[in-house]
Design brief:
mainly alpha; elongated; HTH-type_reg/antitoxin; Lambda_DNA-bd_dom_sf; transcription regulation; Cro/C1-type_HTH
């Protein structure tokens, strides 16, 4: 059941935010973790990290803009063509890309 604005203001007026924050820090220090968030890394980002390239460097290697690479890593767009092939190699055999970059 959601509260209306008046009820929220009344509830919040009774809160001691400073004490709540202090208690949260104490809980964390004591190992009592509340909410835990996990972040899934896309296969493209994982491959890029294995190769040891920044997003800017990887985008340049693929011949695409930084923004395009970011869109791919965030799953908002899908690579195609030569970039897709290079990314597939980077995912399956990152050592090959490392070797080629070192040459």
């Amino acid at each position: 059941m959601s509260l209306d604005e008046k009820e929220l203001l009344a509830r919040d007026a009774k809160r001691n935010i400073g004490e709540e924050l202090l208690q949260a820090v104490r809980d964390i220090k004591a190992g009592k973790v509340g909410r835990v968030s996990t972040l899934e890394i896309s296969p493209i980002a994982a491959a890029r990290q294995k190769i040891g390239l920044s997003q800017r460097e990887f985008a340049k290697m693929l011949g695409v803009s930084l923004r395009t690479l970011q869109e791919w890593e965030q799953g908002r767009r899908t690579p195609s063509g030569a970039a897709k092939s290079l990314i597939t190699i980077a995912i399956k055999k990152p050592e090959v890309i490392k070797e080629l970059l070192a040459a």
